[in-house]
Specification:
Helix 8 links the parallel strand 7 and strand 8. The chain is an alpha/beta fold. Helix 8 runs parallel beside helix 14 and helix 9 packs antiparallel against helix 11. The two termini are 39 Å apart. 42% of the residues lie in helices and 17% in strands. The strands form two sheets. The chain has a six-stranded mixed β-sheet. The chain is globular. The protein is built from 14 helices and twelve strands.
């Protein structure tokens, strides 16, 4: 480090799998990846582990893009604050996610993260929540762990979104990269199953999302399409069971809900059916509405065919509609998007 500083050089690591810059096709991974490229996009992923690098994570199969990847390892020089400052100025990065085992300079971290979070969402997963985890993280990276309650308070003060699971590090940023921020916390639900709609309402309450009561005009339009369709949860299950051509009215139903000004964000539940033709029908409609409505949309897809679910999910994400692995993750994505929008508006 002393030699590097004399030469005005910076060091990442040691104990690192390195960096990647998919925007420029620069991936000097020392390990075998098994694929050729990482799709370029707006999500930056940084961590104190090589588990985020291309040899450990299937970026080649993802349908969202990545701007930068950095495993800063034991942080002898470059640390999380340096990365935040760099990514804050990076035009290719729209949202920043980090996995941390330690914070080198708590005071600096609070100041830098507060500044960056007013410009871009910052999502952080931190280990060492328990005494046992904190002890092991010290042996892993050689750094001093931070008291978990202090870290949570710092995140709340700075407007940083704290993550709870490793999978969230890769899933939740999609909502910020692909969708506009919600104008408010009013949630709409369109689903093919009423049970999932009820579960979504319970989940939404955890994040301050309020399920919107549809406007009288919207309810009237939906009830004209099918009796009792214009309720708080727009449930496609009954028309699906009663009509042979329910796909013909699907686009009309979703368009009617999108146009309702009482809704700021939408939880969209899709049933694929076991037939390829349904996937094509859906995608044709979503191609038509891409970029047309400024509402935040999170989608969850279910059905009897895993290959069709995976295909539908991939092609939806290629169109810019993020799809989540379960309903809880989809609702949480909308919830943190709403929380961040409120934070950003308050700091503007």
């Amino acid at each position: 480090v002393e030699i590097a500083k004399k030469s005005r050089m910076r060091i990442i690591g040691p104990n690192t799998a390195g960096v990647a810059n998919p925007t420029h096709g620069f991936i000097p991974d020392p390990y075998e990846m098994g694929y050729e490229r990482v799709k370029a996009g707006g999500i930056a992923i940084c961590a104190q582990t090589g588990m985020i690098n291309p040899q450990a994570f299937p970026y080649g199969d993802l349908h969202y893009g990545v701007s930068k990847i950095c495993d800063y390892g034991n942080k002898c020089d470059v640390d999380e604050c340096d990365m935040l400052e760099y990514l804050d100025e990076d035009p290719g990065t729209k949202v920043i996610t980090m996995y941390l085992e330690s914070i080198r300079d708590g005071r600096r971290f609070l100041g830098v993260s507060k500044k960056v979070a007013l410009k871009k969402p910052v999502l952080i997963l931190k280990s060492g929540r328990t005494k046992e985890g904190a002890r092991v993280s010290v042996s892993h990276t050689g750094s001093l762990a931070v008291d978990d309650q202090i870290f949570s308070a710092a995140c709340k003060q700075a407007g940083v979104i704290r993550l709870e699971k490793f999978t969230e590090l890769f899933e939740l940023p999609k909502i910020f990269d692909a969708q506009p921020l919600p104008r408010g916390n009013r949630l709409g639900i369109v689903t093919f199953t009423g049970g999932v709609g009820v579960l979504a309402i319970d989940e939404a309450a955890k994040y301050g999302l309020l399920v919107s009561k549809l406007s009288p005009e919207t309810s009237t339009k939906l009830n004209a399409i099918f009796p009792d369709l214009g309720k708080t949860i727009v449930d496609m299950g009954p028309p699906m069971a009663a009509m042979n051509n329910y796909m013909d009215i699907y686009s009309k139903i979703l368009t009617t809900v999108f146009e309702d000004d009482t809704i700021d964000c939408l939880f969209n539940v899709l049933w694929t059916s076991p037939f390829q033709s349904f996937v094509e029908e859906y995608l044709k409609f979503y191609e038509e509405i891409k970029g047309k409505y400024q509402k935040t949309i999170a989608t969850w897809i279910y059905g009897p065919s895993i290959p069709l679910i995976n295909e539908m999910s991939s092609r939806m994400e290629d169109l810019g509609f993020p799809v989540f692995s379960d309903l809880e993750m989809g609702i949480k994505a909308l919830g943190i998007a709403c929380q961040y929008a409120i934070h950003k508006k308050g700091g503007a």
